[in-house]
Amino acid sequence: MASNLSLSGLVSGMDTESIIQKLMAVESRPIQLLQQKQTTLQDKANAWRDINTRLSNLQSRAADLADKLKFYAKKAISGDTTVFDATASSSAAASSYSLTVQQLAQAHIVASAAPPGGPTDPAAALNQAGNPQINGKTIQVGLTDSLNSIRDKINATPNIGVTASVVQVDATHYQLVMTSKTVGSTPIAFTDSGNVLTNIGILSGGVPNTVQAAQDAIVKINNLTVQRASNTLSDVIPGVTLTLKKPSTGTVSLTVGQDYDAVVKAVHDFADQYNSLIDLINQQTSWDDKTKKGGTLFGDPTANQIKAQLRSMVMDVVPGTQVYKNFTDIGVTTGKYGNANYEKLQVDDTKLRQALTDNLDAVGQLLGVNEANVALATAGSTATASGTAAGFDPNNVLNGQTSSAAWGTTGVGWQDNTPGTFPDTLTINFGTTRTLDKLVVYTLDSATQPASANGVRDYSIEYWDGSAWKLLTSVNGNSQGVITSTFGAINTSQIRLNITAANGASSNILQVQAFQPSTGVAGRVRNYIKGYTDSGTGLLDVKQKSLKSQMDDLSKSIKSMQDRLGLREQTMRQQFTAMETALSKLKDQSAALNSMLMNPGR
Length: 602
Hints:
By secondary structure, this protein is an alpha+beta fold.
């Protein structure tokens, strides 16, 4: 490292340190320019990252807008939610009902002897011995057992079907209480041994000391009496679940109809996200006349192209529509030029709801809800598998049957014939080349055979490119009954599921659906955005990589220039030090010469 000797300019009188700093400042100017350029590139990368995020969010909102289950969702309205709540699935039929809740299902509750009988200390030995049974489970009671210990033994017994507790009922008395874990008319079953239950008052003459009777729920629906061992009724009105809360004093209405609120919300969510994206693009591409400065992406044609193309995707006529041809027809418009909402979407709820009421299917066609499933036997598709269990023809996955309730019967689902051995393959041949962008797999999933224990877990989706199978996407760790995979549009004549693991022993597939890209508003927006946001191939991902590469190159250049400047500074210091040293020597020589001249006799 250079020495600081003589840099103070004591000999020359020069402020050498200041001179060096100013010279270095001049020579470091190119570095500053590169750093400014690097900052500009980073600002652009941040701006594109934000746009990419909002595009991805808009893509999600578009997917929600075209979600068939959400679009055709039903709602059930209870006339008195203190009596019962109700929910409806998309399969529920629109109708009205009158309900009378006569009684709720309730659990059987029994208790030991009430005061003045019963112990005054729950921890005191009861001096009872025997092996009574509760719901067929034996409890060993000894002479030293108390109410507390009997309670603990009951609760520690697996699958006994009751919960035991000790309750202090007055200042000095305690009772052992047993509550059935299930509601309904089936009571707790007791078998006494050693008269333990009789002696502590649980039984009297073999009859339980019942605090609350076991009973089923009883409901009249349109004057038809329904009895169930539950307060949640999901098998009475198809597609409707009733949750009973209390008996009614009269009839209570139930109305099942289309859930237009869900569609209106989806349209608003889409419009809000679209507007958020437009705001961001306008901010990043704006020009400020006062400051004479542009936004980070001012002049970048890509940002303005995204905005223009999206507006076209959203507002242009949808080919093939008959009733509602574009967004404007259902009440979605853009603000006029000069208006504060110029370029932004505005939703007329009244017009939208009227369109939904007048022709729900036509609105669905405009949005792209009703995509075409080409994985159907009726569309010319066939299925083959690596192996098939008896009674599970692979072509069953092409018949449109999406309910697992009838699994195991003729015409329902495919199952492999090698339980515990993987991989298993299921191939769908379309009979012609199809353009696809979504695949939906229905695996076995019912109340008695849930997907978490019987469905497929890990699989890859492959497509035939004309000469070889190519990986399209993979699913891992699935526990759901319906798995939806979306991807960039491909052209293929075959797809294949390569199943490598299942939650049970076998590969159980109920249905496979393959969809062509939607031409509706939501579908074309989603497909357009894919070209920008897809990882690896999307334009914005490519742009981000290019910006990063440029910043990396600048970092290398800056580092190289900083190294050279360090050497340059070191050289300057050495040169100034040498100059000061030389001047010091000259000064010393001059002083000596002057001394000799002034004192010649010496």
